[in-house]
Amino acid sequence: MAILRSDEIRRLSREEREKKLKELRAELLRLRSKKSMSGVVENPGRIREIRRTIARILTIMREIGEI
Fold this sequence. Notes:
Helix Hairpins, 3 helices, 76% helix, elongated, mainly alpha
């Protein structure tokens, strides 16, 4: 899953933003559980990218007034 930029997030509909947010949270949960079980993640920077993208989506949703 590609990381979304702010302008890309703004172009998404409300349903698409919520869907992306749900997908990213699920992927973050999967990566965190994998890290805690084995201690090794293929791409440790991916966790940081996902967290930032989630924050970016939530910030834009708050700006628009969806939250």
